[in-house]
């Protein structure tokens, strides 16, 4: 400082490579703890850059190196509990033994920041965590501050749709809306692909992706040559995930200038654990989003090697046999409608596949079909006369994706599973929905 004296100071910061949720959290820290100065990371995540440059003035950031001669009393850390992600700040803090308070919304994260008191919250966005505190204290925000905070919540919750979302995320979002947050601006900050060269690359990549079926999974792979690494590649990869909707996408970028390969990957299946998968290549990240840098390799031969690696490493996809009900009740064609209705009542079902003498499904009979027979006063007629046909059936090795397609295409709610001409099980729309719920697509873990 100018007078050469040591001043006591309180500071707050988020993780390195500042993202939108960090910025949302920090703007609220400024309101909640006005005697804390905010410190910026030397790295701003590409997705957060436009908001950061527009609203820099609202944060009044210090640089990490400004901390060097200061006596720091108190530190607040937001949106991380990992020492590695706050190194750049602590590297500049000397001669201080500050008390550290952390606000972090990451569920499973182990805290390795020593001596810190950790406050954890189950929120989709860390911004909601601090927003809830600000609401309780009756704090008011400027519309610009509300816009920054709401962008943070939308970013980390996938616009309030990811698995991690809590009711507080909605509550705080509503509060920020009341404080004058502009949805128009929030939307523009969330649009990660806006540079012309990004759009060009997106189009080129879309033309070069190849689709493979590996162990029943729909896998996309692209190999693309770039002169040099450009920012925002991950956003392009995510956009392609949205457009093409594969189970996983492995984007290989061969960077000519540095003779390295940048492998950016996204998955939407728990069975395809990318963090695990990229370990042998020195990469990592999260379950459903990971990347690796590989030196001295050529794109085309790396792609071939990687395909072979996927073939032997991926666990097989979930198939009909994994979720079907088996054994399954069936009615024979020659049963009378009366017998069929009694049987349905006995087993408490409203419909059932119909099989011929050799056990092959030939139709489907429901209480509604039987009702028609009752009205026509022909309850003694054989089921054959009133069942719906032809019956759509499939085999036990079809994947969940194929099951879904059959349900939608034929507007059916039951899919009999047949092996060697015999009915062996049934998959209902309900079984399928239960499976979807169990493996709900938490496509992105919180950042
Ligand atoms: Mn976060």
Automatic annotation (TrEMBL):
UniProt entry tagged with the keyword Metal-binding: yes
Identify the keywords attached in UniProt to this record, alphabetized. Answer: CBS domain, Magnesium, Metal-binding, Nucleotide-binding, Nucleotidyltransferase, RNA-binding, Transferase, tRNA processing
The organism's superkingdom is given as Bacteria
* Biological process, per Gene Ontology: tRNA processing
In this chain the CBS domain maps to: 324-381, 387-443
- Provide the cofactor list for this protein: Mg(2+)
Pfam families, per database record: CBS, DHH, DHHA1
> What GO molecular function annotations does the UniProt record carry, in alphabetical order?
metal ion binding; nucleotide binding; nucleotidyltransferase activity; RNA binding
In the UniProt record, does the keyword Nucleotidyltransferase occur?
yes
Family indicated by similarity: Belongs to the tRNA nucleotidyltransferase/poly(A) polymerase family.
Q: What is this protein called?
A: Putative polynucleotide adenylyltransferase region
């Amino acid at each position: 400082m100018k007078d050469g004296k040591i001043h006591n100071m309180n500071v707050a910061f988020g993780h390195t490579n500042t993202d939108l949720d960090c910025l949302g959290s920090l703007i609220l820290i400024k309101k909640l703890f006005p005697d804390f100065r905010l410190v910026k990371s030397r790295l701003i995540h590409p997705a957060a850059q436009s908001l950061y440059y527009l609203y820099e003035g609202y944060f009044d950031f210090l640089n990490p190196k400004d901390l060097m001669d200061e006596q720091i009393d108190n530190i607040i850390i937001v949106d991380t509990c990992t020492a590695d992600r706050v190194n750049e700040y602590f590297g500049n803090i000397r001669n201080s033994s500050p008390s550290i308070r952390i606000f972090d919304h990451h569920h499973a994260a182990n805290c390795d920041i020593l001596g810190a008191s950790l406050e954890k919250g189950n929120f989709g966005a860390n911004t909601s965590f601090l927003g809830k505190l600000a609401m309780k204290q009756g704090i008011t925000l400027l519309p610009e501050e509300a816009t920054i905070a709401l962008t943070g919540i939308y970013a980390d919750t996938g616009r309030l749709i990811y698995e991690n979302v809590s009711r507080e995320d909605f509550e705080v979002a509503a509060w920020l809306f009341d404080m004058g947050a502009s949805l128009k601006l929030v939307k523009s900050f969330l649009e990660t692909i806006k540079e012309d060269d990004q759009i060009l690359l997106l189009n080129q990549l879309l033309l070069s992706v190849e689709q493979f079926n590996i162990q029943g999974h729909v896998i996309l792979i692209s190999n693309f040559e770039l002169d040099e690494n450009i920012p925002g590649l991950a956003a392009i990869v995510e956009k392609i995930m949205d457009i093409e909707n594969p189970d996983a996408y492995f984007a290989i970028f061969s960077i000519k200038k540095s003779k390295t390969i940048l492998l950016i990957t996204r998955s939407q299946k728990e069975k395809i654990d990318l963090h695990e998968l990229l370990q042998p290549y020195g990469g990592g990240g999260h379950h459903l989003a990971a990347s690796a840098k590989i030196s001295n390799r050529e794109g085309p031969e790396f792609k071939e090697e990687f395909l072979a690696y996927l073939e032997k490493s991926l666990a097989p996809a979930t198939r009909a046999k994994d979720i079907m009900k088996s054994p399954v009740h069936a009615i024979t064609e020659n049963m009378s409608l009366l017998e069929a209705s009694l049987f349905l009542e006995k087993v408490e079902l409203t419909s059932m596949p119909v099989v011929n003498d050799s056990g092959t499904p030939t139709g489907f009979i429901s209480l509604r079909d039987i009702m028609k027979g009752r009205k026509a006063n022909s309850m003694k007629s054989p089921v054959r006369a009133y069942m719906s046909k032809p019956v759509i059936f499939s085999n036990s090795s079809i994947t969940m994706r194929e099951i879904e397609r059959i349900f939608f295409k034929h507007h059916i709610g039951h899919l009999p599973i047949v092996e060697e001409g015999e009915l062996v099980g049934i998959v209902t729309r309900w079984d399928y929905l239960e499976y979807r719920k169990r493996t709900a697509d938490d496509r992105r873990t919180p950042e």
